[in-house]
């Protein structure tokens, strides 16, 4: 829930004297009793808009705040929390001073808006109102009475970009899962239109394996870092960015790899803010796979009640999301999986019938369940299932070739398709989120489907970023169910 805290006080000192202290964004460890030690990052000036102060409180809390605006004419400045161990979300605060003509004193107005985790609203609003603002008024009064503001604090004005250290996975040669290495790197400040994100969870997709193997070298030149999606919080934003602020909880998916990293700059067009009910881990596990399910259902196959869907790898990341969503929308779903355990899970997530086959033999069984075959086939298997897929397709059916876990699919001839009056698609998720608005619409629909139970959450298997190789090994040896994430 959004909180608004407002406090004000009259300080017995002229406005210019009070302002001289407060406009220095790094002065608070001199005068505020709860602030222990503060410094301005990257040697910037403490009155420079955009500078970040990093400080600790007496109770050990750590906070980074960024100066967003400074108005000397109106004695006002605004700042926000970029990172904090205290759970204040989207915290933005403004300090305004006004002269009190009676006695040449100063009226100090301090207000903020922020979100809090459920159940902690009162506690955190109280902390800000009394522990920070009222204690601040008292502290500054004391500071001025003692004349401590006459001391001058040194600055070293050196505005510059702020590179941040990061860990990332690097591939120097295409190959098996063991070609992935952890490397240290610096991530520069975000460029125009970019946001820099501290990533907490990174989504692992089968697509990352194609990149690692060198199936799409143009997309991952060497050395390169795989990964198409992640979730975390915004550290800072570049010029021209709108609708996103430092400390926002966000997730992204984008058409250029590089997500296997602890910090990354990405285009604002790839990024969405997360609603409170979607945790970071769930967002990283679901965003790309859930948006894939969304465009399959709503754009490509135009789902309708009674439609017959054959979904391969039905216990995998995309498979479980798609199975539960399609079934909630009234489709009948047959899944294929390679083990009885996977079959149980697929049934639990909406499949009416599950075929257990490790060798891509499913057409006869599918046609014995539905005499005509499947209206829609969602095929992430590729080459090894080519003939079976065509055999399982109903007249006028739609074969959607989504991926190639068993190898690149061969070309489909028009003669083959015309023999069943069938259609064939070879879509890529990123084309369906090509604009910021499209991405936001699809993500909203996905989160709503999670909230109302249409999408039943798949199991999520976490691995550390350094263990990305192990995650790939498990995914490509068909050992996993649900979605995999890397944790930072
Ligand atoms: N085009 C797009 O927009 C788009 C977007 C997302 C995903 N995809 C595709 O959708 C498919 C599923 O992706 P995902 O990330 O959710 O992966 P996943 O389904 O969690 O994992 C892949 C699954 O494929 C099955 N599989 C069958 N033959 C395999 C083989 N030879 N090697 C490895 N696995 C094999 C395995 O399930 P069983 O053991 O049960 O058979 C395995 O668990 C992939 O093909 C991916 O490329 C496409």
Please specify the SSE layout and strand pairing.
Elements: E1 2-11, H1 15-22, H2 28-31, E2 35-40, E3 52-57, E4 62-71, E5 76-84, E6 89-100, E7 105-115, H3 121-145, E8 164-171, E9 180-187, E10 194-204, H4 206-213, E11 229-237, E12 249-253, E13 263-267, E14 271-273, H5 280-300, E15 308-311, H6 317-328, E16 332-337, H7 340-348, E17 353-356, H8 363-369, E18 374-379, H9 386-392, E19 393-401, H10 414-418, E20 423-425, H11 436-451, E21 460-464, H12 468-476, E22 483-487
Parallel strand pairs: 15-16, 15-18, 16-17, 18-19, 19-20, 21-22
Antiparallel strand pairs: 1-7, 2-3, 3-4, 4-5, 5-6, 6-7, 8-9, 10-11, 10-13, 10-22, 11-12, 12-14
What does this structure look like?
The radius of gyration is 28 Å and the shape is elongated. The protein has a seven-stranded antiparallel sheet. With 488 residues, the chain is α/β, with parallel strands linked by helices. It is built from twelve helices and 22 strands. Strand 21 (460-464), helix 12 (468-476) and strand 22 form a beta-alpha-beta unit. The protein starts with a strand and ends with a strand. NADP nicotinamide-adenine-dinucleotide phosphate binds at residues 205-207, 289, 292, 313, 315-319, 337-338, 342, 380-381, 402-403, 405-406, 427-429, 475-476, 478, 480.
């Amino acid at each position: 829930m959004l909180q608004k805290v407002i406090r004000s006080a009259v300080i017995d000192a002229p406005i210019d004297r009070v302002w001289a202290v407060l406009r220095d964004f790094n002065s608070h460890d001199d005068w505020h009793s709860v602030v222990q030690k503060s410094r301005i990052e990257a040697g910037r000036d403490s009155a420079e808009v955009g500078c970040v102060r990093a400080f600790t409180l007496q109770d050990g809390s750590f906070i980074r705040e960024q100066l967003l605006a400074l108005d000397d004419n109106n004695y006002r400045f605004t700042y926000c929390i970029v990172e904090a161990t205290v759970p204040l979300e989207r915290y933005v605060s403004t300090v305004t001073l006004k002269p009190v003509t009676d006695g040449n004193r100063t009226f100090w107005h301090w207000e903020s808006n922020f979100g809090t985790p459920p159940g902690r609203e009162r506690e955190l609003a109280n902390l800000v109102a009394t522990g920070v603002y009222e204690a601040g008024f008292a502290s500054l009064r004391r500071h001025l009475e003692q004349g401590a503001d006459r001391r001058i604090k040194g600055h070293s004005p050196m505005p510059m970009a702020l590179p941040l250290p990061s860990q990332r996975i690097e591939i120097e040669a295409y190959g098996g899962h063991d070609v992935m290495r952890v490397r240290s790197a610096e991530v520069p400040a975000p460029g125009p239109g970019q946001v820099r994100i501290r990533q907490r969870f990174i989504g692992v997709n089968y697509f990352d394996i194609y990149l690692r193997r060198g199936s799409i070298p143009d997309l991952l030149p060497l050395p390169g870092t795989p990964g198409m999606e992640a979730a975390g919080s915004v550290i800072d934003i570049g010029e021209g960015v709108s609708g996103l602020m430092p400390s926002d909880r966000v997730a992204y998916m984008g058409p250029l790899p590089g997500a296997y990293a602890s910090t990354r700059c990405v285009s604002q067009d790839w990024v969405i803010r997360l609603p409170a009910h979607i945790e970071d881990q769930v967002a990283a596990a679901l965003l790309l796979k859930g948006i894939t399910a969304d465009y399959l259902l709503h754009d490509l196959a135009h789902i309708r009640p009674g439609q017959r869907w054959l979904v391969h790898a039905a216990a995998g990341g995309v498979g479980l999301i798609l199975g539960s969503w399609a079934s909630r929308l009234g489709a009948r779903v047959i899944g294929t999986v390679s083990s009885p355990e996977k079959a149980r899970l697929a049934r639990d997530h909406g499949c009416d019938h599950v075929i257990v086959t490790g060798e891509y033999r499913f057409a006869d069984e599918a046609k014995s369940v539905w005499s005509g075959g499947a209206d829609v086939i969602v095929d992430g298997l590729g080459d090894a299932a080519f003939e079976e897929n065509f055999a399982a397709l109903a007249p006028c059916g739609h074969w959607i070739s989504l991926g190639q876990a068993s190898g690149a699919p061969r070309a489909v001839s028009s003669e083959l398709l015309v023999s069943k009056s069938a259609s064939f698609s070879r879509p890529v998720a990123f084309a369906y989120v090509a604009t910021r608005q499209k991405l936001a619409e699809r993500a909203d629909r996905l989160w709503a489907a999670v909230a109302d139970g249409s999408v039943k959450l798949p199991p999520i298997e976490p691995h550390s970023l350094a263990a990305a190789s192990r995650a790939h090994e498990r995914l490509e040896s068909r050992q996993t169910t649900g979605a995999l994430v890397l944790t930072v």
